[in-house]
What does this fold into?
Amino acid sequence: MAKEPKKLDDLFLDTLKDIYFAEKKILATLPKMVKAAQSPELKKAFEKHRGETEGQVKRLEQVFGIIDKKPQAKKCDAILGIAKEGEEIMREFKGSPALDAGLLSAAQAVEHYEISRYGTLKTWANDLGHPDAARLLDATLQEEKKTDAALTQIAEAVVNQEAA
Amino acid sequence: MAKEPKKLDDLFLDTLKDIYFAEKKILATLPKMVKAAQSPELKKAFEKHRGETEGQVKRLEQVFGIIDKKPQAKKCDAILGIAKEGEEIMREFKGSPALDAGLLSAAQAVEHYEISRYGTLKTWANDLGHPDAARLLDATLQEEKKTDAALTQIAEAVVNQEAA
It folds into this structure.
């Protein structure tokens, strides 16, 4: 029998596994960023986001449940590339007054990756007739947008003036 | 003599090289996405973005000029990771009704990476006293945001309904 062509529900599941991998990678990376950050405000922002990320992982597990699948991670090359750039900054700018600016830039690249993925997943969940999943994905999307806005504020108000 | 610690202008230059690499990679990838797209509307959107990307590369070259540097690309692991995911989708969903949805999701991940980088670079250009560079970077930032909004509209209105 010929294999069925892949459909939107396959794409949804693939992308869900991708962002599940990404969230776990972020959860593992955030404590390093808390430790590296120089400004107390930035440390606090990263710590807060770590707590939120734990909740976001749980929401993803609920979404897997809604579509009757076991939570499973699939290697996400995008987040690995973004994280690698962040690690380079931590190494190359260690002890530099510009370190926090670099950490902020790395964190905002992560936020934007997540914003794009959750936006896509939310649209697909609605198309596939899973409004409860769409609501969970949207809750995380709104959190990520808030985090990004908070990081922009820190970048403009505090860190870059120290770094210049 | 000990090496000077790295500063914000080093970070600015590094990040400029990173996005210059990314834009060139995007320029090389867009024709493949035009070719792969099934809906005429999506093909047209990718074609339009290819033209814009050429202008964005030129703006980056102007920014290099403003800070008295030659345009130079530096390997950007983030865009390579994002592009790799896009290529996987083109391969795995070839011939699938969900292909366009996948292409849109890949394109929006790229847009969001650029939005984060141009936002960061614009803030830093202002901090470093290069308002002309900040204006150029902001012009591209606004284009990327418009492209992302246009892709969201296509995703919601056309492609996903075909794919479901």
About this structure: Helices of chain B lie at 8-36, 40-66, 77-92, 99-127, 131-163. Chain B touches chain A through 50 residues (CB under 8 Å). DSSP finds five helices and no strands in chain B.
